[in-house]
Write a structure and sequence with these properties.
- This protein has 237 residues and is α/β, with parallel strands linked by helices.
- The protein folds into 2 domains: 7-174 and 222-230, Rossmann fold, CATH 3.40.50; 176-220, no CATH class.
- The protein contains 8 helices and 9 strands.
- It has helices spanning 14-22, 39-45, 105-115, 132-137, 144-158, 179-187, 197-200, 203-216; strands at residues 7-11, 29-33, 50-55, 61-66, 69-75, 88-94, 116-127, 164-172, 222-230.
- The protein has a 9-stranded mixed beta sheet, with helices on both faces.
- α3 packs across α5.
- It is globular, with a radius of gyration of 18 Å.
- The two termini are 23 Å apart.
Length: 237
């Protein structure tokens, strides 16, 4: 199944991108796989969704009400989610599919399909291996291969399970006032990545940052690809 040409959305947050692509989520059940600390889950809950976040590294969080919706976090892996089949209207991977080990990608995508109701959607937002932030991080955290693996897995293991596929691009704003702001953010992400704090603060990375900062003025916006898979062709809602 070919998704066809991508629709460009311009500058968006992750929540705004999903709402633009699929419409409002009030009253829908969402499972967010690889949710981290739950920022995206909280954002959807504030728009009225009931969101269950799944993450192997984050401590469980009991259900909380946010705006018109609610969310919780369960500690589990994407390939073994402790939820019943056909319990979700939307399953999302937000910058998380490429963190699934290559040998587990097929199982994680099968699990996503299992969780969806017959009219449900699989929504996968992945960072592209391009742009100034990728160029800056490449010496200490090159995700080119794992991001390519995630895209291949979508083609091999997700697309055959759905009738339609759509492709979107957007930019996620990333602004760093100075190198220290960049290093602080990167060092906070070592929990689920393959580098150490010392790998970030090196003369090479400082030099790269300075060169890119002079070109882009502190805007290190991240290009994002969204693959939206569905069975019947209709909007999420």
């Amino acid at each position: 199944m070919n998704a066809g040409p991508a629709t460009s959305l311009g500058l968006r947050t992750h929540v705004d991108a999903l709402l633009t692509i699929g419409g409002e989520v009030g009253g829908l059940d969402v499972v967010d796989l690889g949710c981290g600390e739950g920022h995206f889950a909280r954002g959807l809950a504030s728009r009225g969704a009931v969101v269950t976040g799944i993450d192997p590294w984050v401590a469980p969080m009991p259900e909380q009400r946010v705006g018109g919706g609610r969310f919780c976090i369960l500690q589990a892996r994407a390939e073994a989610v402790p939820l019943p089949a056909a319990s979700a209207d939307i399953v999302t991977f937000i910058f998380s599919l490429h963190h699934v080990p290559a040998g587990s990608l097929a199982a994680a995508l099968r699990e996503a399909s299992r969780l969806l109701r017959p009219s449900g959607r699989l929504y996968v937002a992945e960072p592209l291996a391009e742009g100034p932030l990728h160029d800056l991080m490449q010496p200490f955290h090159d995700e080119t291969e794992v991001r390519a693996n995630a895209l291949t897995a979508l083609s091999e293991f997700a697309a055959p399970k759905f009738e339609t596929a759509e492709l979107f691009h957007y930019l996620e704003r990333r602004v760093f006032a100075d190198f220290r702001a960049f290093a602080t953010r990167m060092q906070a992400n070592t929990r689920f990545n393959d580098y150490d704090e010392k790998d970030v603060d090196t003369p090479e990375i400082v030099s790269r940052f300075d060169g890119l900062f002079s070109r882009f003025g502190g805007n290190f916006d991240q290009p994002v690809r969204v693959n939206l898979f569905s069975r019947p062709r209709s909007r999420i809602r």
